[in-house]
Amino acid sequence: MDFTMNEEQVLLRETARAMFGNECPPSLIRDAFYDVTSTGPEDARTFFDRHLRDWAALGDAPVVDLCLFMEEAGRVLAPGPGWVNTSMFLPLLRLIEHPLADQVAAGEMTGTVAVCGSDGYWVLSEDPVRSFVPHAKEVDLVAVLSAQNTVRCVPATELNLQEVATLDRSRPVFQFDVPVGLDTTGVSAEELAAVLNRGTVALAAELIGVGRWLMDATLDYVRERVQFDRPVGSFQGLQWKLVDAALLLERADAAVYFAAMCLDSDAAEQHHAVHVAKAAAGAAARRWARDGLQSLGGIGFTWEHDLHLRLRRAQASEQLLGSASWHHDRLAELIFSTG
């Protein structure tokens, strides 16, 4: 497969990076979710409404294009339901031919997806409870998936949403009891799996963006921090640690875009590739969060430094849609079931 970006993809990445760089400073995330100010939450909602709603149409675009955007979103921890709305909710509405799909693509409405039951496992369930539903209070609609391969869309305002405490406050998740008597639309297991795969790879791309921010911030620091009259980055013990982490991130990056290309081409190995991508991206982001924290020393532990914001996202998103160990288990099942 050819990993070279075409001109349109280069422009997409540059446009997204410039937009996030100019409009989404670290203070936006801090004021809205951590050092909460009187205007912080509203500023975050305004940012999403002004700058991210128009990107919802990427849900209809190739997965590679979506991943390029999500990687840039991951660098800045872009607020709002962009990931789930674009990568899973819109494709689900297209799948069931929902009349509101065009409005979602146009940015006029937003939605999220409810997958796991009260046990927290990311498998389709008949549990009457749905847990870890991202951004449910920020969207218009919630798509509830079931083990019977059905999709039920319900207005978010009709649900009794209870927030679940997690490490990452910038991506709030919720729990609710599924209302009875909802109209359902049946789809095939393969079609539903394709939507979940799309969301999983998009989340993996976001984790790559988180990892790249952590890598850049760490390398900048160790080049500038002087100890014993030498930059600390010149010490071999630290160099080997960071080289290993950089290689892990580069391998994960390749795995994510390979998986995206597999989904775009409907390749036979797409399910294998998705499991590898999510496991690799989660492990790489977590590794840079750990090694970055250690490399920065005392300053990395402070509330004022932006590193802890990415550490929280890396740890929490590594669990969303399945942890690395969960994806390793699913990959092993695929390999041994097919010989």
TrEMBL record:
Cofactor(s) named in the record: FAD
Cytoplasm is among the record's keywords: no
Similarity comment text for this entry: Belongs to the acyl-CoA dehydrogenase family.
InterPro entries (UniProt xref): AcylCo_DH-like_C, AcylCo_DH/oxidase_C, AcylCoA_DH/ox_N_sf, AcylCoA_DH/oxidase_NM_dom_sf
GO MF assignments: acyl-CoA dehydrogenase activity; flavin adenine dinucleotide binding
Keywords, ordered alphabetically: FAD, Flavoprotein, Oxidoreductase
Domain Acyl-CoA dehydrogenase/oxidase C-terminal: from-to ranges: 195-333
Protein's UniProt name: Unannotated protein
